[in-house]
Amino acid sequence: MSDNWSLPPYRFEPEQEPAPEAAPNPDSEPKAEFARGTGRKPPKPPKPPKPPREPGGGFRWTSLFSWAGSPKLRWVWLSLLILILAGMVAVMAGLVYIDRKYLTDLPALPARDALFAVNRAPGIRFEDREGKQIAVRGPRYGERVTLDQLPRYVPEAFLAAEDKRFFQHGALDFQGIARAAWVNWRAGRVVQGGSTITQQLAKGLFLTPDQTAKRKLQEAVMARQLHKVLTKQEILELYLNRIFFGANTYGIDGAARAYFGKPAGQMSLSEAALLASLPKAPSRLALTKNMAGALERQRLILGNMLEERWITRAEYEAALADTPVLAPGATQDEGDLGYILDYATAEAVKIAGPNSPDLVVRLTIDSRLQATGAKIVRETLRGDGARAGAKQAALLAMTPDGAIRAMVGGTDFDETAFNRAVQAKRQPGSTFKPFVYAAALERGVLPSDTRVDGPIKIGDWAPANYGGGYAGTVSVETALAKSINTVAVKLGQEVGGQGIGELSRRFGLTSIPPNPDLSVTLGAYEVTLLDLVSAFQVFQLGGQRQQAYIIEGIVGQDGQPIYQHAAKAPSPVYDVANASMMVKMMKAVLLRGTGTRADFGRPAAGKTGTSQNWRDAWFVGFTPDYVAGVWVGNDDDKPMNKVAGGGLPSTIWRQFMIAAHKDLPARDFDWLLPDPVPETEEDPRNPFYQDLAGDFARTVRELEDETAEPYTPEEPDEPGRPVQPPQVPQIPY
Questions:
Q1: Which of 232, 246, 284, 633 sits at 20 to 30 Å (Cα–Cα) from 131?
Q2: Spatial separation of the C-alpha atoms in residues 97 and 103, rounded to whole Å
Q3: For residues 138 and 123, is the Cβ–Cβ distance under 8 A?
Q4: Residue 137 exposure: Cα atoms within 13 Å on the Cβ side
């Protein structure tokens, strides 16, 4: 038999016209002839002609299935056809549903030449306010490399790690998907994935890492689109240049330079296999934190390469014996600057755009103050904080123009990158009271006016002071300095929730609703430290609001300017006369109120605050030169050991402000105005009623439970969310 598979196809000869048959011979014996072995069968009798169609007979569905046999079989075939048509309709409807629900926001595939730069975040070099480079941030991409520029074992290591059958399947590997589904089913959990390198590339370039059905479907669609416009070699090359390796490093050349201090083309087999271990879990297998885990996966990759015969046994053994050594710069961290760089990077991307070139960003940060603030926070928390059950703190300081000079988001950025200065929302407690008093001053209340510090009940809510005691008649100024809760609530009643909400939002506290309930008077609504410090700055500026900012300017690596902060005049949001009275009242907080520990011998104003059950402690204050705030607490909301705003926060604030005002001349607020004189004469009966109120207050204290802690003005603020006070017996007149 011939092995030639290229023979010409067989061609059928044209049919010839049959010869006319002779008339049948009655004397012939066809049966006998067949029997005699002629090989011919007797001719069949001609078929009778079809009967003519009856008049009026039309099209019949069953005629379509005349070949199907009996009428019963015909109806079976008809039912199958209907089911097939119904299935096709259902599939079409399903495809339309999937398209409208999952694929309407599918990213458009850019041109081939743009794929190496699409969604590429810029690299950023940061400078402080004096132009000194303090950090380099953002993705490190290195140089774009081609497959020809790499040793053969570099791409093979990634194929062995992620997709051994890359050149045997299309955009999707259905065999791999089936295998992963079987393995995961047997394990009862997800232990293996079926994504191809093309799918991983589509996810990294265009999609989010969310583990959702929508994202997986979009990933498959984008992978097929990539597969249509790129060759296999181009897909692999693009993958190697854009894949994420952890530590803000993208691309094989960027990773080789960041981790080993060499270009990708000079990597050894051992180094290539180690880098190939990272894309699967770049955070968990980070070389600077989990080298042992990465080396374990490296050995698995080398084993796969040996199994596929991509390397020899000798190369395998040599790679196992060659443990990679990280470059010195790979282990350097950002220290106390981490919180600032996270915040500033996000702001820079907002300004310059996600696809901008590499940038040089000048910040408003004062490097000296930043280092000082971080050191004070860390040392205080290690000492007094540890004994008081406080594990975290945050500090933020600004100048009068809104420039952020220091931002400490926690005690250790490497331990947790959560920025408590700008991301954490906590109850401010009595630190919120100045805004209640500010709203009261807008309605004619004066610092010299008096209110009675006594029992108050609003519905089921009966707010009390710390310790349960009452001071009787006090001035509004004294009530703020001593942080008396009942007076703050009474002023809140006079102003109304809508008035407090409107003023708060005017000051920039947008997390306060337009019409809060009266628990807002004791700081029950959550705010961030940045928002609270910015709102206090309105008092510092005499009623003017200034927008906080951290970026002074941005230029490209070529020196071309991209952005420059434009100094803007502050917006008036509060009357200067009322602001003057508020500053004087908050000065009393440091001189004779709950914030005496914050006093550092210069004109300054501020307010302490403590939330419910000692969960949050605050101090926010200002001088003519700086406004700063401090928060102390725990991330898990665990109560501290009676840490109040007048304690650790005031201590941290004082030490920082001493450093911030070094070499600055002492000065007062030059815009303060004389206090207004009351327009009406004092009612001569006031002393009598004041004495009577004091008598009642003393009687109440005497009848209270003897175990109750007496009220003293020096005690810290009561926790912010209202609690029930001790039951007070009715006193007969």
A1: 246
A2: 9
A3: yes
A4: 22
